Amino acid sequence: MKPFWFLIMCLFIECAKAQVITVADVKVSVTDDSAAVARDKALDQAHSLAFQKLLKENFPEESRNSPSTDIIMNMVTDFSIDREKTTPKSYTASFTFQFDASQLLGWVTHKGEASSQNSLFTPQVLAKGKSLKLRALYSTLSEWQVIKKALENFAEVQKLIVLTFTPQHAELDVVYAGNIEKLQQHLVQKGVLLSFEAEEWILSLEKQRL
After folding, report:
1. Global pTM value
2. What integer is the mean pLDDT of 20-24?
3. What is the rounded distance in angstroms from the CA atom of residue 117 to the CA atom of residue 112?
């Protein structure tokens, strides 16, 4: 039987130009009957750990959900071994993974829609909660994180659901208590603008409007 390592490498010969999301410093350590078996199991674990790390850092609302290992592997376009150590019965390594953004965002969008449809956290349930549809505009994943964290850190935001997500914008459903002016004041302190344009509420970084 060909080594699992070789089969995985074959799966990752894909389009180098695809937009990717990088997850670094994924550490695993496995002990088994042999180093080869330990390495194969470590690679399986590394894929799942990398995906969970990506979710916790970027989509914490989905961190309790995880697809099968096969689906995760299909999302990965490349990976590298930054450090590794092998003994006769163990394998320890640190990996960097690159995930295909379109596949990942497709999965997140599907889960977000399901969460939106099934959640009991709705305006009808919350006596003081109000639902507001927002469109977040950004050019990088780090900018998206700034916008999302600014919303999450607003004490009166009770729920944030990502309805759709692309590399340039996200559609959000925010359940909050309070008025829109207070939300705008909070966001501008975080460097985020909330404005009403073309009959929709738009979120963007201040520097994007300069």
Report:
1. 0.50
2. 87
3. 9
